[in-house]
Amino acid sequence: MQHEIELEGLGPQGETMADAIATCVHCGFCLPTCPTYLTMGEEENSPRGRIVLMKEVLEGKLSAEEVADPIDNCLGCQACVTACPSGVPYGDLITAYRAHGEEHRSRPVAERAQRGLIGSTLPKPGRFRAAARLGMLTRRLARFAPGRLRPMLELLPRSLPRARPLPELVPAEGRRRARVALLAGCTQQVLDPEIGWATARVLARNGVETVVPKGQGCCGALDMHGGRRRQARRAARRTLEAFPDDVDAVITNAAGCGSGMREYPLLLAGEPDEGEARSFAERVVDVSVFLDGIGLLEPPSPAKPLRIAYHDACHLAHAQGVRDAPRRLLAAAGHEVITPAEWEICCGSAGTYNLERPGTSAELGQRKAGNLLATGADVVAAGNIGCLVQIRSHLPGDAGRPDVLHTLQVLDRAYRQAR
């Protein structure tokens, strides 16, 4: 697509945005895979339409305020990246543009307050746990809460598991095959800490020593994908400082976090630590890819193989191009792996999208739950805490409801039952 974008004044990410826009040929292959085009049916709420709007802003023909709604409606799922025959790096474009847009627009007071509350609680496990407990006490009053606070209360679980922080070192069982550093995650530690423990146990069972850096905090993915560049850079630098160099890989078990950490070179482009960010990002790998690469030791043979509907988390399948590794691991454990209809369509979680755009998020969540139920699976597996929470909230609560587990929880159960 031809453009008249002047790079001067756009900073180091300006060229990234301009190149992405130039790559788009306006073909429309992205339309059927875009969740907001499916639900809203408007060109401006499609990747192709948004690229035109971002181009117009960067050319100075429209203001960031004028295109704010279509840009905010985007889930950032990157299904369009998978569908695009021209290779438009839409993920890099929307991330860079949102940072630019936030500096050239103002938000209503209620919206700023909601985003501030989210940004000050979700990335901090202790603070999030306290806020969640308070929210659960007042959930019955959710219908009386202000509009932007209501979905934050309604999405809270009925109870929280007890805090179970991981140790700083989980040794390998038997001969050590590798040494890795694990990102513990933020909301995951509060909502489902068992995912971290299951990850550590499966890695240990497969001869992998796991370091859990003590000084780590939020990886910055939520802030980065929300356009809060300053906060995201601060979180990224803390992560770079906390993680050791003497490991074979930096492991993530949450798709959104892994995608965000692999975007550090874009986030820190033009900064003194860009090179360090690039080197770090090259070592970041999803746990399913790492285990698939080294091969499972003594894959467990379940007494009763399960039918597992595998849900492709967007920031794993689309942003990182990972689809086969999790399926191979589940199949190696003796299970039947099923791909639901519309696997490429986002479940509607998308970081904090289900809090900021609850209507569209709920529509997508119900659509995803229906497709998963139609498989008749015993278990739904996924590689992202946000997806797991979203899917659980939209599945029916009757006896026929399948278990919803992280891929590593499925493997961990199989190993433990085999002992």
Strand content: 5-15%
Helix content: 40-55%
Q: Number of DSSP strands?
A: 9
In the sheet with the most strands, the strands line up as 1-3-2-4-5
CA-based shape: globular
Radius of gyration from CA coordinates:
21 Å
Question: Termini, distance in Å?
Answer: 59 Å
Number of H- or I-type helical stretches: 23
Detail the poorly predicted runs. none
Mean pLDDT: 92
The main β sheet shows up as:
5 strands, mixed
Main structural class: alpha/beta
Summarize the topology.
Layout: H1 14-23, H2 35-40, H3 47-58, H4 68-73, H5 79-83, H6 90-102, H7 109-121, H8 125-137, H9 150-154, E1 169-170, E2 178-182, H10 187-191, H11 194-205, E3 208-211, H12 221-225, H13 229-242, E4 249-252, H14 255-262, H15 264-267, H16 274-283, E5 284-286, H17 287-294, E6 307-310, H18 314-317, H19 324-332, E7 336-338, H20 353-356, H21 358-373, E8 379-382, H22 385-394, E9 403-406, H23 407-418
Helix pairs in contact: 1-6, 11-23, 17-19, 21-22
Account of the 3D structure:
The protein is an alpha/beta fold. The chain has 23 helices and nine strands. The strands form two sheets. Strands 1-3-2-4-5 form a five-stranded mixed β-sheet. A four-stranded parallel β-sheet has the order 7-6-8-9, with helices on both faces. Helix 1 (14-23) packs across helix 6, helix 11 crosses helix 23 and helix 21 (358-373) crosses helix 22 (385-394). The N and C termini lie far apart (59 Å). The mean pLDDT is 92.
